[in-house]
Design brief:
- The complex is a heterodimer of chains A (245) and B (244).
- With 245 residues, chain A is an all-alpha fold.
- Chain A is built from 12 helices and no strands.
- In chain A, helix 2 runs antiparallel to helix 3 and helix 5 packs across helix 7 (136-152).
- The two termini of chain A are 29 Å apart.
- Chain B is 39% helix and 26% strand.
- Chain B has helices at residues 42-49, 71-74, 93-103, 108-121, 137-149, 167-180, 193-199, 217-224, 229-243; strands at residues 2-13, 16-27, 31-35, 57-62, 65-66, 78-81, 155-159, 185-189, 202-207, 210-215.
- The two termini of chain B are 35 Å apart.
- Classes of the chains: A mainly alpha (245), B alpha/beta (244).
- Chain A binds chain B through residues 1-2, 4-6, 8-9, 12-13, 16-17, 78-80, 82-89, 241, 244-245, and chain B through 13, 47, 50-53, 72, 75-76, 78-80, 82-91, 95, 98-107, 111, 131, 147-148, 151.
Chain lengths: 245, 244
């Protein structure tokens, strides 16, 4: 009950912030439309709708990090959090209460992106459902990044780190905007060592029906997601103690 | 019955002793004002009593339950109205109240009923569907205290409850607090000395982490041989400050 009451509050707080919501949902769709328009005039395989859609879905998820990070950072610096710390809520109630409302929002964002892609010509088949499932670990990864940033940084820092740095990292190092092989070298190595490229590739593999390629990429995403969630839980608990000193 | 008993309660931060061997007893349904200048140790004391931080030495007992050993049993017994207004800004008045009800374990129906009771008790009917962030300072404070009471705590911490309010809003809130003190143990911290005198049964004054005097306002005035409470407070705070 404690956790669900808190989760409901977080859902309302996020959904009632219209600007964030419009930006989070609207911006990825605008990018999708823009790149599809480029593809229509100058055909590039990278921007073909079935290739582009998983990348845009992953890019859109970086806004979920921004939502979660901002909410936690804002809470942490307010007296409202003091009230919650004094309440019988446990660390698990806090973490689940922040995470659970964001998961359906992330899924909704992916689904809206895919519906927009369908309107732009994405062929409708069962692989789309698989793609949605394959992108769940990526959604959890981005939620965890938001939890971690919100636990460590203040509101202003979160908006810079999640709003600017993460969205750019997730875009450039994911192979969505350009083929990583075109740059190669250290850039490609770094992209390969980070989870964003693997999240996009897992989505692309699911979308194209290359099932054997899904798991190797997904393991990177799951590994990063689990590690960052672990760090986030630790950072939240540690910060909760130091915030109260 | 004793609501709070502290036993050499001490908190040290590196080289600073914020609270130094505090021994204090507060009776059930008493309104106890804890006063002191900034840095006297009031906030640290409240944070220990509300299980936010652990004591370095000593212990405190809330209704005979140790804050160090059994904080999970102590927490459901208490609630707090923090100094700054502690509300969820995008939630309505009723939703804020229901949230705290849920966090303290009420089911949806019970939380809704209790929220409505609080709305009636605190005169929040007209603004119950307004979001907290657009409320006036006075209404936000009322909501903040109502949120602290919805869990029916046996012990309530009121931290600067009227800070920043105009004189009418302050007097309104005083009435609310006076009504509460019949059924609940309240620890009040405030910098408004007249507020402590008007509302509390007993007052404790802390200076540099030590509790220097405890008694009714009249008793403290008498002990310090001053004309009024403010002079007594200054005499205690300055005297000790000079000696320290």
């Amino acid at each position: 009950m404690k956790m669900s009451a808190f989760a409901l509050r977080n859902t309302k707080e996020i959904l009632r912030d219209k600007l964030n919501l419009a930006f989070g949902l609207g911006f990825p769709i605008i990018v999708l439309l823009l790149l599809s328009a480029i593809q229509a005039n100058i055909p590039v395989e990278l921007f073909a709708i079935d290739h582009l859609t998983p990348g845009i879905c992953v890019f859109g998820l970086s806004f979920i990090s921004l939502f979660s990070g901002m909410l936690i950072a804002k809470d942490r610096t307010s007296s409202f959090m003091l009230r919650l710390y004094i309440s019988p809520m446990k660390s698990s109630d806090f973490i689940l209460g922040y995470t659970l409302p964001l998961l359906p929002m992330a899924m909704m964002q992916i689904i809206i992106c895919i519906i927009a892609a369908m309107a732009l010509g994405l062929s409708i088949n069962t692989n789309i459902l698989l793609t949605i499932v394959v992108l769940i670990p990526a959604a959890i990864l981005f939620i965890a990044i938001g939890l971690l940033c919100g636990s460590i940084f203040n509101e202003k820092q979160v908006s810079g780190i999640c709003g600017a740095l993460l969205t750019n990292l997730a875009a450039w190092l994911s192979g969505t905007w350009f083929d990583l092989d075109l740059i190669g070298g250290t850039f490609k190595t770094i992209a390969n060592l980070l989870p964003f490229y693997h999240a996009v590739e897992a989505g692309r593999a699911a979308m194209s029906g290359s099932f054997d390629m899904i798991i190797p990429h997904l393991l990177w995403v799951i590994g990063y997601g689990a590690a960052i969630m672990g760090f986030a839980v630790y950072a939240f608990a540690k910060k909760a103690k130091s915030d109260n000193k | 019955m004793i609501a709070i008993k502290t036993d050499n309660l001490t908190k040290k931060f590196k080289n600073t002793t914020a609270v130094d061997n505090l021994n204090l007893e507060i009776n059930q349904n008493e309104l106890f004002a804890l006063l002191g200048v900034n840095g006297a140790g009031k906030t640290t004391t409240i944070k220990m009593l509300s299980c936010l931080i652990n004591p370095t030495e000593g212990d405190a007992f809330v209704f005979d339950i140790s804050i160090s050993k059994e904080p999970n049993k102590v927490k459901p017994l208490m609630n707090v109205s923090p100094q700054e207004t502690a509300v969820a800004p995008n939630l309505t008045v009723k939703e804020n109240l229901e949230l705290i009800g849920g966090i303290y374990g009420m089911d949806k129906k019970a939380a809704s009923e209790k929220a409505q009771n609080m709305i009636n008790l605190f005169g929040l009917e007209e603004i119950q569907n307004n979001r907290a962030k657009i409320l006036s300072g006075g209404y936000q404070r009322r909501l903040s205290i109502a949120m602290a009471l919805i869990s029916e705590p046996k012990l309530l911490f009121l931290d600067e409850p009227t800070l920043g309010l105009d004189v009418l809003a302050r007097r309104e809130l005083w009435k609310v607090i006076k009504n509460l003190k019949k059924d609940i143990t309240i620890i009040l911290t405030t910098h408004y000395l007249e507020e402590a005198v008007a509302l509390s049964d007993r007052i404790g004054i802390m200076v540099k982490g030590k509790l220097k005097i405890v008694g009714t306002a009249e008793k403290i005035i008498q002990t310090m041989n001053t004309d009024n409470f403010e002079d007594a407070f200054i005499a205690i705070s300055e005297d000790i400050g000079e000696k320290a």
